[in-house]
TrEMBL record:
UniProt membrane topology term: Multi-pass membrane protein
Protein name: Sodium:calcium antiporter
Sodium/calcium exchanger membrane region domain mapped to chain residues: 4-143, 174-316
Keywords: Membrane, Transmembrane, Transmembrane helix
Keyword ATP-binding listed: no
Phylogenetic placement of the source organism: Bacteria, Pseudomonadati, Pseudomonadota, Gammaproteobacteria, Vibrionales
Species of provenance: Vibrio inusitatus NBRC 102082
Record flagged with keyword Disulfide bond: no
UniProt-listed InterPro entries: K/Na/Ca-exchanger (IPR004481), NaCa_Exmemb (IPR004837), NCX_ion-bd_dom_sf (IPR044880)
GO cellular component terms, semicolon-separated: plasma membrane
Amino acid sequence: MIVAICLLVVGLIMLVWSADRLVFGSAALARNFGISPLVIGMTILAMGSSAPEMMVSATAALEGKTDTAVGNVLGSNIANIALILGITALVKPLSVSSGVLRRELPLMIGVTLIAGGIMWNHYLGFMEGVLLVVLFAAFIITMLRISRAEKLKGDTMISEQESEVPDGVDNRKAIFWVVVGLIVLPISADLLVNNAVIIAKYFGMSDLVIGLTIIAVGTSLPELAASLAGVMKGEDDMAVGNIIGSNVFNILAVMGIPGLLNPSFLNEDAMNRDFWVMLGVSLLLVVMALGKSRSINRIEGSILFLLFIAYQGYLIMNV
């Protein structure tokens, strides 16, 4: 058991590091080939924080553990809002002023409802995976159009996101990090999934609960780091935007992967219990972010954080 815990930690560290290197190299390479910072920021960088979830989801699906892959999506989305935004708001209240975010939040709710419609019959099929991937492409195109329009109005989040795009990186260095990321990412995901399963099975957890707890929290750590870094630099909109974008990507891209690779029946708890928790915290975020104050204060942050602790406690106590 101690060996499995150590290997899980190693796998998680490698997963987060390799995802960061892959995104860095890809973004630098794209910029060197003349792709605009806006496009890079809304695609490569925005998807980067979901890279660990995507690789873990693919690994789990290929190993016949679709419940783990879906649990990772649901659990990560819940953790992104309740844990990460909760902790971030406790560190510093978050203001929401970006026009992009005000348009993206309803899209997040719509995508969440689509996930519920897909899981309603407790089955994730191939055509549903195709639908999610197609919707993912449509979402990217839509957000690019919205971002271009908002950039002309001087939206602060767009400027903040563009400033994160690496500049002046040699092509050889960029390609090196892309190759390293592509090699290490699947190895670390496999290490994480296999040892998470060993630990969770030791405690009698189901594949779904494994994804909702150990793996979901682990793969959400890049979002936590990004949000805390953003808020400490005064980039509140970007901190919130990372979470909203990650949640949309998780449902459309990450959930689409197991549908394509391993269509399967799902544990009924995924729809009957965990979907409603995800929808509930998503709606709570919309109320907080689009309310009169257009902010998430420390009291609201503590509510989100306590909801996450209560949810995780319920899962563990009811294994």
